[in-house]
Known about the structure:
The chain is α/β, with parallel strands linked by helices.
Amino acid sequence: MGIDSGTAHGRVPHLPPELELAIFKLTARFYPEMIHTLILVCKRVCTWVEPLLYKVVQNNSTGSEDRILRMMTSKPPEYLQAHVRHVALFNFIDRRDVSRLLSTCTDIEDLAIWSGDTYPALLDIMRHLTRLRHLSVNIFDLFGGYSHFQLPPVEQLPLSLVNLTHLDVFGTPTAELCPFFGMLSALTHLAFSDIYMPLLVQHALDTCPALQVLVIVWTQSDAHEETPEITDPRFCTVFCTNFNEDWETGAWDGEDFWYRAEAIKHRREIKGARSSCSTV
């Protein structure tokens, strides 16, 4: 019986580098809490998985704001620009630090601002985020709120908004927002979180040129049944038990509320196709 020469001489057999890379990246993706441990394995593994440590940035726990600030000082701006892709501000963070974070990590693709501090000056800061595609924010406050609400002309909208494909709106529902959704020519997915205002919903369905899905996200189960049925096949409702966890799941390519809304739409399309076939 043949014996592997590496094993016979006591050497530990090695996997092909490309297989090692795939294994460690998959481990980091599905178990992000292990990334800090994985980077200690050896230099090459650190090179492979350390960037994933910065892929998803959030201040959702005690001390997380300090970790963000340490990140800003421990890594050069070009490194953060290259690797930070998802940012969620769950808790309050100083506006100067928000400006520094968003001005440095300009290749962000997914931004959630849930800190309770949304203000018009953020629009100027966000102008640098030309790769932004997913945004979750209080749009009403972003455009000035009750005291200074003002929508800019479509030609003055920053590219960070013009290029959006997914927008999650929460906060104050108001008819003043209606014209905004028609300005977003690339928007395919729109969500209203714990908001159901028929005028807003119907206006968005009628005016968003590329819209494929409009979803009402309820975070309380008793509200889930209060949404009247809308016949537009692009409309649906989903229940989300933990919005923070749902966002992080999506950031790591998991099944978030957008995925579930797409699944509902897909099932409807299949059902509609079968109904059409049965009537032929």
